[in-house]
Amino acid sequence: MYHRPSGKTHLLNDASHHLLTELLRERKDLATIVAEFDPGDGSVETEQDLQRVRSMLFRLEQLGLIERL
Amino acid sequence: MTLDVAVTGKVSDLGASEFSSRIMTNGLGIRIGPFNAHIRVPIPAIQQALYCLYSDYPLQDLNSVFSFHAHLARTRKFPRLYRPLVRFSIDGRVPHEDMPLEQALPVLEWGMNLVIAMRSHCFLLLHAAVLEKRGYAILLPAAPGMGKTTLCSALAHRGWRLLSDEFGMIRPGTEELVPVPRPMALKNDSINVLRTFAPDAVISPPVQNTRKGTVAHVKPPEDSVQKQSITARAKWIVFPRWQADAGLSLEPLSRSQGFMMLAMNAFNYDLIGESAFRTVSKVVSASNCYRLVYSDLDEAIVCIDQLANNDG
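Predict the joint structure of the above. Result:
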């Protein structure tokens, strides 16, 4: 993806791409995002999954691709 | 696509003596791809090599508007204390320090490449060799030392048309590669490798002890210079890597990998910005991407020919 404000190009993995696409559609909180990642078998929502999504969000924020509200 | 080019004969029409006389005094206008170059080189020692390397290029009238004026001259500072030097200047500016006189030819060639790389921002400039077969272009993007020019020179002497050994030049918004065929700089062992591989290749006398080791320049095939106004559409992107004793391998790459590797190889990707992003996207979307590891030039050529034949 090309980020106009910085002029940087970023190569996203599938998860980051999905996350960014969702956040561009509408603002969301962490719990909502994690819930949406849940395939429905209860395999998500562990503390480890929360941490994983949190670190992805933190990384996207660092790159200036999303903004914490 | 064919670009408009005004020509008034070619360098060899002048003959060696007239060529030398002109390039040493008022200079010569030469068409190189999309550029009108005015070149003045009052250095007798490299006249023969220059005439040989540039004999097929179209001449440009000296009243033309030139893309750049390249001048290489012997410097006269402290001639008794220091080795003789040459000074490269472009439009009257000197971009780097003076270099030893015996390196005059590589200094001129590097200087002209530098000018193209630093100024041609109406093009996206990928650091890649580019060749064409049946209207489609293969890009060979690589960092220095990966065997790009050796492979490119070999392909250019096995039926592929040379567009460039250094610049994948693309007008933003298209996937058309614009030719800028220039003498190809071989280094060190690759000089003898190409001599053996293509005994008909015309190669300038090797120059030793340059900052890149021993360097010799290969004359672009006549057909490539004659067709330098004909662009080619990208179809294959092959990232080559020469590795001693390695077995041949051609590994497909995802378009995402190809994109990032190609963009990182560009001279002016960041400068051009979003338009460069869209152009690389277009080129990669139109192409299949591979990583080629080779040690044997013949094997690599067969592999690339097969790719073009099966994927054409």
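Residues 1 and 27 of chain B are 31 Å apart (CA to CA).
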